[in-house]
């Protein structure tokens, strides 16, 4: 069912609720955690380039998802010469007490070898802005669940998508380092 929901996010018209964090990351490493209600139908937890998330949020609801990039329909070969840039979003898909993972490929792929793992009590998200990568963790055991690249050419914000009902609770930062913390609306930025 999660695999089918993931395909829906990339190939059809649908209505989603998108929540974008009000704190953008523009440098350094940032970490936050959240608890997703296990009875949530489908929740996507992650980050995205602020400008692209704002575009996505303002697009009319009857437009195809921005994660779906239809083929131009011509075979000029121009598509083959482009350098693959990191995606503007990185989301972990969660639904009905499970997390959809894929084996070494982006979660947006249609990899049939993907698997599901039980939803941990808390999910940690670590964004390394300079490296252009985001890592998702079981925030209780600190076991890495998935890591991928993300476009960090501008401010990057935490983002959450809800389809079919769901709930999550943001957690305060849990860190052992002595660092200055700035907390706004549940998101913590490390300086």
Automatic annotation (TrEMBL):
Residues 1-179 form the B30.2/SPRY domain. One of its GO terms (biological process) is neuron migration. GO terms for cellular component: axon cytoplasm; main axon. InterPro entries: B30.2/SPRY, B30.2/SPRY_sf, ConA-like_dom_sf, E3_ligase_FN3/SPRY. This is TRI46 protein.
